[in-house]
Amino acid sequence: MIKRKNTVAHISKRAKQIRKKGEKWTDAIKRASKELKSKKHVLGATSKAPSYTISGLNGLKGSANTTPIPEINITFSRRRKVTGKIGSARDVANTISKFYTKNTIEVREQFFVLYLDNSYKVLGYHTHSVGGIKGSLVDLRILFSVALKSLATSIIIAHNHPSGALRPSSSDIGITSKIKKAGELLDIQLLDHIIITKESFYSFAEEGKL
After folding, report:
1. Which of 1, 41, 44, 172 is 20 to 30 Å apart from 119, CA to CA?
2. pLDDT class of 186 with cuts at 50, 70, 90
């Protein structure tokens, strides 16, 4: 009996949606009933897909059946701890260098992000990307999504140069500028960009490049 009531409600709802100007209500009901029987039109209450209400968008109303929106989850691992405050570029370089092994720092680029709170205490770090000999991919959307999720107020980025060259490349300078500008819009400060080699490091902040 409940199923029957739901079916009638669906037909009535669909009839209101498809009824033409001046069309008899009975005719609209018949067309809606045919659609339901032929399953050409999937109604929200009969669909197995999740239903999401759309609001606040001009021209859209009601519900839309779609797949769930992916959500980024942050997990914490105790295998590697980063604690305390970051006081200098050397502190960052010493901390980040521990993330590399002797076999990786001279073989392929890895891009790391340190996330800090308002007191410059390290909340954690993220291995943003692992690339090849000449470069690694940096996606600002992922970088800042982690920052927002962790409630970080500042970040420090770092990557290694397998070649051993300390001077930043044009792409290094470009991505630093993009991250800094994006951070300013979100009120998340870029404190430094550290380039690490097996022997030494380069700090954008210390060199006045930020």
Report:
1. 172
2. very high
Q: Residue 71: its pLDDT value, please?
A: 58
Q: What is the distance between the alpha carbons of residues 149 and 142, in angstroms, rounded to a whole number?
A: 11
32-53 burial by CB neighbour count: b if 16+ within 10 A, else e?
A: bbebbeeeeeebeeeeeeeeee
Per-residue model confidence as pLDDT tens digits over 115-135: 999 988 888 888 888 877 777
Both tokens of 62, joined, read 């009601």
> Beta-carbon neighbour count of residue 14 at 10 Å?
19
Q: How far apart are CA 73 and CA 183, in angstroms?
A: 21
Two tokens at 72?
Answer: 């980024």
Tokens of 134: 């000449």
Report how far apart, in Å, the C-alpha atoms of 96 and of each of 38, 48, 209 are. 62, 48, 20
Sequence-distant contacts of 14-22: CB under 8 A, at least 24 apart: 14/41, 14/43
Residues 6+ apart with CB under 8 A from 49: 65, 66, 67
Cβ-based neighbour number of residue 150 at 10 Å:
17
For 137, other C-beta atoms within 10 Å of its C-beta total 13
What region, left, alpha or beta, does residue 97 occupy, with left being phi > 0 and alpha being psi -120 to 50 degrees? alpha
Residue 193 · residue 210 · CB < 8 Å: yes
**Strand-by-strand arrangement of the 122-130 sheet:** 122-130, 110-116, 154-160, 189-196, 201-203
